[in-house]
Structures are given as structure tokens and as C-alpha cells.
């Protein structure tokens, strides 16, 4: 049984405020991270030992440890990605292992699964449907990692990605709708820029227009983020578009 004060805790504002007792539960994969501070503080290799024991693959640990420690400038993000890559190289398409990761209590374990499974598909037509579960995940960290894992492929296949994500704008799940626009931001956060959107932002209207007045603030904020990115290179276009949208709402 996990104590209520652990379950109902608030995320710390800094690493110094992190309760050491919480870290024990995080490293054992028994609770999700509450915020970025907890996400950064979790010892992913310690957590990995627990997960590998659960899938009876503890002999794989040395491979993960070697890959993680070989990083020149390790970050929580890069470590998450590397662990996912090693899972893919060792597990291949082992559905039993991915099932454990996908349904794990730890959000970081689900992030590893996202990275690993994103490497299984060469075409964006196959990639995006498989990544939908991660875009819909209840945890903010998983929803961000799936953007990192899919954006390079979407940039290389931009037209196709726009068509596919246009259908996602009709989803009843606000997380899916949010992904449709947030994942294709012209600049984004810690992701590669989409130069074509920076030069021709009107290409994004197919995913922006259906969500401009979305019932969810989470989705509307994503639209705002997209337009803010576009304003850096196409301020006149963004101003004109916002004016047109405002006139339509008024009428």
C-alpha cells in the first residue's frame, strides 16, 4: 500500500524540496512523477532494474548501463531516448515486453516504450497510428516524449502528416486533438524546427482551423503556441489570420 501523503503529494518546486521518501517510490516505479522536478530526479537506471526484473530480462541491464554511461552530455531526455533505443535493439517487436512497459505505473517506463516502438515503423502512415496511445496518455511527460519521437518523421513527410493529423482534430480526446497541432509547431520546445512552416505557415491551416475555438483550453493553448512560433518569421500572416478569426467570431 502506498501512503496517502505520497499519492496526494504536490510536485516540488525544486530538487532541494524533493522528499527522499518520494524518490524511493519513483525509483521503484510505484508512482508517476508529479512534475518536471520529479522527472529529472528519478534514477532511470535504478528504475530500469525493477522493470527488467518484471520482464525477466535482468541480464540485459549491462547493455543499458553501458549505453547510458557512454553519453558525453547526459540529460534526462537523452537517457530516456537511449533506454528506448536499447529496448528496441534487444526486444525487437516483443509484444509481451512492450505490453508491460505500455501499462506500467511509471510514466518513464511508458516513455521508454514510446521511443522503442517509434523505431519499428519506417513510414509515417504506420508510425502515427501506433503512437496514438502515447499521445493520449494521462501523463504530461509521455505526451511530450511522443512528440520528440515522431516529429523528425513528420517533418520528412509533412504533407502526409498534415492529412493524417487533420483526422485527429475530430477526436473526442483533448490530448489527441492537442497533439495534432502541438506536434507540428514550427519551432516547438527542444525539437527540430519545421522550416517549411516558418516560410509558409498557411500550410498548417488544415490542423489549426478546426481547433481555433476548441472547447479545451489545453488545445487552444497549443494553437496559440503554434501561432506564436509562426509569428517569429511571419508576423503579418499571423496578425491577418487572427484578425480574420476574430471577425468570424464576432459575426
Structural overview:
- The protein is an all-alpha fold.
- It contains 16 helices and no strands.
- The mean pLDDT is 94.
- It has a domain at 150-251: Serine Threonine Protein Phosphatase 5, Tetratricopeptide repeat, CATH 1.25.40.
- The N and C termini lie far apart (56 Å).
List the helices and strands and how they pair.
Layout: H1 4-7, H2 20-27, H3 36-41, H4 44-54, H5 61-69, H6 76-91, H7 95-102, H8 107-118, H9 124-135, H10 140-156, H11 158-168, H12 174-182, H13 195-199, H14 205-208, H15 217-231, H16 235-250
**Structural class by secondary-structure content:** mainly alpha
**What's the level 1 CATH class of the domain at 150-251?**
Mainly Alpha
Chain oligomer state: single chain
Radius of gyration: 20 Å
Q: What's the main sheet like?
A: none
Q: Give the overall shape.
A: globular
Mean pLDDT figure: 94
CATH topology of the domain at 150-251, anyone? Serine Threonine Protein Phosphatase 5, Tetratricopeptide repeat
The number of distinct helices, counting runs of at least 4 residues, comes to 16
**Beta fraction of the residues?**
under 5%
What's the total number of strands? 0
Question: Quick gist of this model?
Answer:
With 251 residues, the chain is mainly alpha-helical. It has helices spanning 4-7, 20-27, 36-41, 44-54, 61-69, 76-91, 95-102, 107-118, 124-135, 140-156, 158-168, 174-182, 195-199, 205-208, 217-231, 235-250.
Notable traits:
65% helix; Serine Threonine Protein Phosphatase 5, Tetratricopeptide repeat; mainly alpha
Amino acid at each position: 500500500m502506498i501512503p496517502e501523503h505520497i499519492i496526494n503529494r504536490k510536485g516540488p518546486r525544486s530538487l532541494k524540496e524533493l522528499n527522499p521518501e518520494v524518490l524511493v517510490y519513483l525509483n521503484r516505479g510505484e508512482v508517476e512523477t508529479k512534475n518536471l522536478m520529479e522527472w529529472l530526479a528519478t534514477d532511470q537506471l535504478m528504475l530500469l532494474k525493477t522493470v527488467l526484473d518484471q520482464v525477466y530480462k535482468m541480464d540485459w541491464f549491462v547493455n543499458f548501463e553501458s549505453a547510458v554511461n557512454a553519453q558525453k552530455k547526459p540529460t534526462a531526455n537523452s537517457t530516456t531516448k537511449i533506454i528506448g533505443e536499447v529496448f528496441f535493439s534487444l526486444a525487437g517487436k516483443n509484444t509481451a515486453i512492450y505490453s508491460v512497459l505500455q501499462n506500467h505505473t511509471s510514466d518513464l517506463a511508458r516513455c521508454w516504450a514510446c521511443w522503442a516502438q517509434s523505431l519499428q515503423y519506417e513510414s509515417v502512415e504506420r508510425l502515427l497510428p501506433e503512437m496514438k496511445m502515447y499521445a493520449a496518455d494521462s501523463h504530461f511527460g509521455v505526451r511530450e516524449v511522443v512528440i520528440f519521437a515522431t516529429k523528425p518523421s513528420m517533418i520528412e513527410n509533412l504533407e502526409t502528416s498534415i492529412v493524417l493529423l487533420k483526422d485527429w482534430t475530430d477526436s473526442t480526446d483533448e490530448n489527441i486533438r492537442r497533439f495534432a497541432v502541438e506536434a507540428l509547431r514550427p519551432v516547438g520546445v527542444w525539437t527540430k524546427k519545421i522550416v517549411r512552416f516558418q516560410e509558409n505557415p498557411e500550410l498548417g491551416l488544415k490542423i489549426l482551423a478546426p481547433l481555433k475555438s476548441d472547447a479545451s483550453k489545453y488545445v487552444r493553448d497549443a494553437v496559440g503556441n503554434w501561432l506564436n512560433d509562426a509569428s517569429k518569421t511571419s508576423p503579418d500572416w499571423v496578425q491577418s489570420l487572427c484578425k480574420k478569426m476574430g471577425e468570424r467570431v464576432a459575426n
